[in-house]
Amino acid sequence: MNNKISFSNRLRKFVDGEANTPFEYFMLLIVVINTVSIGLETSPSFFEKYGKSLVWIDQICLWLFILELLIKAIAFNKEFFGEFRTDSENQRFFHINKWNLFDLTIILLSTIGSLPFFSVFRVLRLFKSIKVIKGIKSLRVVKTLK
Predict the structure, then answer these.
(1) Among 11, 127, 132, 142, fewest CB within 10 Å belongs to which?
(2) How many whole angstroms separate alpha carbon 68 and alpha carbon 62?
(3) What is the full DSSP assignment across 60-98?
(4) What is the mean pLDDT of the chain?
């Protein structure tokens, strides 16, 4: 049991959502590649020439997103969906991990999107880029001019 906890804690450092590990940079690259490939699919002439390659790229990206989700589930275990926290008045409350739920929803809908009728759901994966960008601390700083 102790090894499982330490493995989960070590794994959590790679998928903590701060976009500061090689794994998260790799997943950012996958999000960008997926975004570009989905965008290129909208060009009929490009899709006519490279459609099979774009479909393969899309499927590989989907499987990598599923793998990322599984790694997160292992790393966060029971806290994947949220965790109990204590507020300033010492009251316990359940804090929902909205980003993990967001990822889970997008991946489930994208998996359904593999079926021809539901292909519109694949586009929802583009929203993963918003999550990844939010995790990059240097992009959070907004300077105001006075």
Answers:
(1) 142
(2) 10
(3) HHHHHHHHHHHHHHHHHGGGGSEEEEE-TTS-EEEEE-H
(4) 78
